[in-house]
Amino acid sequence: AVVSTQSTGVLVEKKRAELEKHAAEVKQRLETHVKEAEQRMMEQELKNERIEANKKAVELHQGEKFVGCITNWFADKGYGFAVTSISDGKGAERSVDVFVHVSSVGYNRRILKTGKKISFKLEWEEGQPRPKATSVQVLK
Fold first, then answer.
1. pLDDT for the residue 45
2. Lower CB density within 10 Å: C or N end of the chain?
3. Which is it for the CA torsion 124, 125, 127, 130, positive or negative?
4. Residue 139 and residue 120: Cα distance in Å, rounded?
């Protein structure tokens, strides 16, 4: 079959338009992925900065007793989380999430639950995202 130069040109233009459209879609998806990756990196940097600031604040107050409130308690797992306020050493207070394990509680372990007030000392284990409570006492 003989194909005219004109119909070949139309096919080439049609294919070029399809490829350009596809390239634009790929470029858009790539730009979206780059923006999402940049956002995740910024969030991780902020998280790391928060962790370092909390770690320094805990080091400043080594051995001191804190009062906090259990925000989540998983009785079946034997651990939960509390929140306390701690000075950063520069006159500002910061809220710090604290890991609480049932083994750090002397007696009255069974009354640990969300909303309970506790007193505790703070300790930071290297590689952990938050400090852990030690010498925990349940307050009335």
1. 94
2. N
3. negative
4. 10
- In eight-state DSSP terms, residue 38 is H
89 and 57 in contact (C-beta within 8 Å)?
yes
What pLDDT is recorded for position 112?
85
For residue 54, give the nearest of 89, 91, 81, 105 by alpha carbon: 89
Phi and psi torsions of 119, nearest 5°: -115, 155
What six digits make up the tokens of 60? 């400043």
C-alpha separations of 120 from 29, 43, 68, 81, 108 in Å: 49, 30, 8, 12, 14
pLDDT of residue 105: 85
Mean pLDDT by 10 residues, the chain (140 residues): 72 92 96 96 92 85 91 92 88 89 78 90 89 90
- Rounded to whole angstroms, the Cα distance separating 111 from 102 reads 11
Reported as half-sphere exposure (CB side, CA atoms, 13 A), residue 109 has a value of 15
Q: Which pTM was predicted?
A: 0.68
